[in-house]
Design brief:
binds zinc ion, 15% strand, alpha/beta
Length: 323
């Protein structure tokens, strides 16, 4: 999963392209958070913190207690459906964490260099939704807009072609890359909205939560495309974070009702496990309501990134680079 360019949806004047037409139409049904960041701009390092108790101050949390283990313990039937090549089962923490799921599927066996389309996940999600079982949790790991952008959407999804004025760097190469990126984001809009609709069709107590592992800088602030630790810029840390809740879910979880007012909370997905625990209503020892974006006791705390850099102090200077 990667940058959905939410500016495109909610502030059409800022991003000059409509890269999220379908989700934009569903806006009233969604809870969109505007100020969420990834703890790291690299996939695996970001996911390690997202899925476990690890965070900036405690990078190697004990036991690697994960969201999947939490769901398993609470009696959920857990599914992990991935469109990303599993990095060696003994090498990558996200893969090890994923193997704790009761049902595991890795659809893509090829690397990022190959054409991989996320619509391949939809029939598998459908199947998982049809499985019997009282409580189910389906984790879907999209390939999203991970490079190479052009290989993330079918040919007939080449929609944007012209020059995009949004970027800082304007060359023939950046024009091509920005167009491919925007096409990939527009395709992701279709995939994410389809997933929400599949869950919605079930008409039961359910929710969908979507976010990215990190963003990409696509010539937004520098002569660079993608994400890289040493090039880490604001667009690489800024990520979309949105949720959809069914009527039954909202009726059973009244506290969620006021969420619309929570949309500007400053959040770092290294605290995701607390939000996850809250949203599935299963608490664990060490649960901290202050770290759940869905909780009325939520409290903002310093968002440290890179080498003890305060994201909120840094973002203004970094953002001023964007014209
Ligand atoms: Zn990634």
């Amino acid at each position: 999963m990667e940058n959905l360019h939410l500016d495109g949806i909610w502030d059409f004047m800022v991003n000059n392209r409509e890269t999220n037409p379908i989700l934009s139409k569903m806006k009233d049904e969604l809870y969109v958070f505007n100020d969420v960041i990834a703890s790291d701009v690299m996939t695996i390092r970001s996911l390690e913190k997202v899925l476990t108790l690890s965070n900036y101050n405690n990078p190697k949390a004990e036991n690697n207690f994960s969201v999947i283990q939490l769901a398993n313990t609470a009696g959920f039937d857990t599914f992990w459906i991935s469109n990303q090549q599993p990095v060696g089962f003994t090498e990558s923490t996200p893969t090890i964490i994923a193997t704790a799921a009761k049902h595991k599927q890795f659809l893509a066996t090829d690397s990022y260099m190959y054409s991989i389309y996320d619509e391949a996940l939809l029939p598998e999600i459908k199947k998982a939704l049809k499985e019997t079982g009282e409580r189910k949790l389906i984790f879907v790991h999209l390939i999203g807009t991970h490079r190479t952008y052009k290989k993330r959407y079918p040919e007939n999804f080449s929609y944007f072609e012209g020059i995009n004025e949004r970027t800082k760097i304007k060359t023939e190469y950046s024009k091509t890359k920005v167009n491919e990126y925007d096409n990939a984001v527009k395709y992701n809009d279709l995939v994410v909205s389809n997933i929400i609709n599949l869950v919605k069709e079930q008409e039961n107590n359910s929710f969908v939560l979507y976010f990215s592992d990190h963003g990409d800088d696509v010539f937004d602030t520098q002569d660079f495309v993608g994400h890289h630790t040493h090039k880490g810029s604001k667009p690489m840390f800024d990520i979309p974070f949105l949720s959809w809740f069914s009527k039954d879910y909202l009726a059973a979880n009244k506290r969620i009702d006021t969420l619309k007012t929570y949309s500007n909370r400053k959040y770092n997905t290294e605290d995701f496990i607390y939000s996850f625990s809250d949203i599935i209503d299963v608490k664990f020892k060490g649960f901290d309501a202050k770290r759940s974006i869905f909780n009325s006791d939520f409290k903002e705390h310093k968002r440290l990134i890179k080498d003890s850099l305060d994201y909120d102090a840094w973002k203004t200077t970094n953002a001023s680079d964007e014209d």
